[in-house]
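User: I'm preparing a small set of examples for a lab meeting where we compare how different chains pack in three dimensions. I only have the primary sequence for this one, and I'd like the structure in token form so I can line it up with the others. Please keep the answer compact; I'll paste it straight into my notes.
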Amino acid sequence: MKKIVFMGSPDYAVKILDELQNHFEILAVYTQPDKPVGRKKVLTPTPVKKYALHKGFSVYTPTTLKNDEILKSLKPDFIVVAAYGLILPENILKLFPCINLHASLLPKYRGASPIQSAILNGDKYTGVTSMLMDKGLDTGDILTWDYTEIGKKNSIDLFDELADIASKQIIYTLKNFSKIKPLKQSDLLASYSPKIKKEDGFVDFSSALTIDRKYRAFQPWPGIFCDKFKINEMEIIDLDSVNKRGEILEINDGVVVGCDRGKVKLIKIQSPGKKEVKAIDYINGKRLKQGDNILSEK
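Assistant: Understood. Below is the structure token output for the 298-residue chain.
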């Protein structure tokens, strides 16, 4: 039986580890150190650490892999990486085959936020690529890939679906590793997905299309917000009509608001420092009516 060291941190990686342990021997699990969470800054383990401890695996949480003697002593047949969060040094890459399960169709969207980038750019498809790691950022040779249609899915939906795809893909990749001919990536076709920042969630009601894509891409964090409130639940009404930005066009089971291009229906919103409310209750509290501007001071 092949021996595996697994490296991963979020829920996406848990599904992959769960499937791996059904087929291979897990020598050890590497994950990010516990981090303070919430207002009380409670030290909280990663989802992978919780799962691995429950299963009785040996767990390591180094802040760097440079000069890691434990990995060398374990002598795995493969190191499998899925959203780990640490860079593997070149000396480790040379010792063992290191396979990364990257949530994009490489060479598209190398980097930190491939799923969000695919939604933001309006791509029709995304997927998972098994890649033989090298010293570059997601630049290694492609081993296998699978794809799925994005449609109107949000990033939570896609993370979950791509985790299922990745968990099946890695079993095939490892069992057929000796038969697979690695395919070099074309740097000319490469694009990069940066780390998401809170301010990326800002929307200005210029485009309903942009609001829709950001709303789906930035679930659960950072969400989307304007100067007045955070938009917790909404629907797209249309993408093409021409309207006055921020104008209240209809009040029904939600509040239909105009964009320069398109309309959105606000259902639940949240003002800074306050609880979430229905959009209708928000405008009633502000004494706003049809024809008023929800973005204006009042």
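A couple of notes for your slides: The mean pLDDT is 96. The two ends are 68 Å apart (CA to CA).

User: Perfect, thanks.
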